[in-house]
Amino acid sequence: NEVVLERYFNGRDEGSIQDIRSVTKSITAILVGIAIDQGVISGVDMPIADILQPAYPDIHIPLDLTIYDLLTMSSGKDCDDWDRTSPGNENRMYRRRDWTEFFLSLQQAREPGMFGSYCTGGVIALGRVLELSLSRPLDEWADEVLFEPLGIGNYRWEYYDGGRGVDTGGHMHISPRGLLSIGFMLLNGGSFGGASIVSPEWISEMWTPRTDLSGQAYGYLWWLNTVDYGSGPIEVFTARGNGGQNLFLVPSLNLSTVIMTSYYNDPKAVVSDQLFFNAILPDVINMKQSR
Question: Residue 117's closest CA among 230, 216, 247?
Answer without folding.
Answer: 216
